[in-house]
Amino acid sequence: MSNRPIVTTQVVVFSLKTFLSAMLAYFVAISFDLPRPFWAVATVYIVANPLSGAIASKSAYRLLGTIIGAAAAVVLIPNLVNEPILLSAAIIVWVSTCTFVSLLDRTPRSYVCLLAGYTVLLAGLPLVTAPSNTFDTVVSRVEEIGLAIICASLVSHIVLPVHVGTVILRRIDGWMARAGTLFASAASGPLDDVRGRNERHGLAADATDLRSMTMHLQYDGSRHRSAVSLVRRLQRRMLSLLPLEAEFEDLRQSLLRLGTPRSEGVFVLMANVGSAVGPSSMNDAGDMKAKIDALGPLKTLPSWEDLLIANAARNLRDILCVRDDCIALRASIEGGRSARAAPRSAAVDRTPAAHRDFGMALLSALAVAVCLSSSTFFWIAAGWSDGMTFAQVSGVLCCLLATMDDPVPAMRKFVGVTFVTVVVAFVYAFAVLPMIDDFVPLVAALALFFVPAGICLAIPSLALVGMGLCINFPLLLTLQAQQGSDFAAFANGGVATIFAMIWTIVVCGLFRSVGAETNARRLISVTRKQVATIAADKHSDADAMRHRLIDIAGLFAPRAAKLSPGSEMVDADLIRNLRIGLHLAAMRDLIDGASEPVRLKSAAIFEALQGFSDPAADGRRASSMAAIVFLDDLIGFPQGNALSRAEHELLVSAAALRLCLAPDADPPVSSMLLPTGRTAA
């Protein structure tokens, strides 16, 4: 199978639309005598996106960030221009702080802080030598960037628009189809552990991407723009399927190992439920729910098999409930109904906070500070006229690539692309453009470069190449109303740009580069700490925990794909950690209705699992083994003891927790806990 990028009609249309936006912005800029129309052209390609709603949302946040950054430049530059060291320090602190804050928000809102930071570099640094023109120049930059944003949004919404709502629904259907396939595979036979784990992590990653895409929906021009609340509810219900599917697999395998006649009937029911998950399934859940209810209530003195079947019944009931909610919500979105028409069980409209990585945000801000301080010092000490460009480009690059674990490989590729761009820009500046004296021929000449480069921008595997070509080209060419041919200025700008990128690689390699192994370990550690926190009774909001840990699993998936086969992180199962936390939270919710002996036995389990976040593998293993011993003690407690309803439910959750901690372990050794007709060996 070929890995060559495929150029589709959609990709070509996107490139043509973006070029049309850029030329429209360029034409308006030169018509109104804006001083740097090339900023308008570059900005169009910076905000370019195939989805019209994404352009509108990103553009709005970028424009707001640009205005804030411009205001900061107006305050800082004139007041500190006579104190270069103090001015440099103020700019460094501002840009680093904005970068740090932007990395704590993984939604399009982050563009506000990001643009507020590096706008000071783009609009403010050139004014250090001419502070009297600060206000006029800053206003011009805002006008150029705002013009580009307006042109890009207008063309995207008017010319063959691609709506976010349509894409989201298609992605949701694909997600549900994949989940349905996973359920069907698990129901029909043993599912390979690696395949099941990787598929769940992949679904979590897709869900994380969908969550980000939903932020653009309210800016979309489609009829789905008013359904943001419903889409978010649907996504939360979809996420509930991941821990349910993982438990579905473990329950089936445990019942299979018992090999009793009762488990055979449960297998048939599990197969029916497994085939019912998915957007295209029209199976009536009523009959299946009746059969689940027919499994009967938990006995007064439950065996291990009874507890497993009770867990299976609860699991299957939850799966069907989530499936029905997803179908109803999907129909409501498609039909354009209001949020009030959503199923009551899915009516919660609060989106829990996503994972925030303060450590990586701080490290990225530190890299920006080091890069800016060193490049600014070089500029001041060397007295190089284009040292300002050196400081600008290095700082902006650090900001733009701050979200990457290891930006060095991308920067190396960027250097090669920029070198090619410098060569092409040189040919245009000194061979092509001097021969052109009208706007239409100029557009035709620029199209020869921008259209193929825009196609690269639209293909994910070539996006970095396209970005380097499309953004650097107009800046190096310094497109104006009347093109000049100053070789010294061009050479200085090109050399400064390439040197800035090389210096950024050095700084990020020393201060910022973090391997996939390190970040994967950090994410896994967060999930373990969450479990330990619940065990310590410090946090038990199941919905918030489910959302956050699945979000972390989504962040983990792309990093897991980069791990070496021998890495200890390869076998990590973040969804299992989520299930442990959910069962612990359920037990904590039920503990108040239990008797004193049950509370004491449960407290021992909670105390044991507080060591689940131990950095040492032996410590975590000892914590889990101790918890299993205490769980066996709790599960065996009903012998000769009458149990309340809350205690019955607590036992079911305890059995689920034991199964989650040790899915392949033997059943608890007690004659009362073994299936009828079997005795302990």
What can you see in these coordinates?
There is one protein chain. The chain has 681 residues and is an all-alpha fold. The protein folds into two domains: 9-162 and 357-511, no CATH class; 164-346, Up-down Bundle (Four Helix Bundle (Hemerythrin (Met), subunit A)). The protein contains 24 helices and no strands. The chain has helices spanning 9-31, 37-47, 52-80, 84-103, 110-124, 134-158, 164-188, 193-214, 228-258, 261-276, 285-293, 304-335, 358-382, 387-400, 408-432, 439-458, 463-477, 487-511, 516-535, 542-560, 574-590, 596-609, 617-635, 645-661. Helix 12 (304-335) packs across helix 24 (645-661). The longest helix is centred in the middle third of the chain and has 32 residues, at 304-335. It is elongated and about 90 Å long. The two termini are 53 Å apart. Mean pLDDT is 82; it is low at 671-681.
TL;DR of this structure?
The protein is built from 24 helices and no strands.
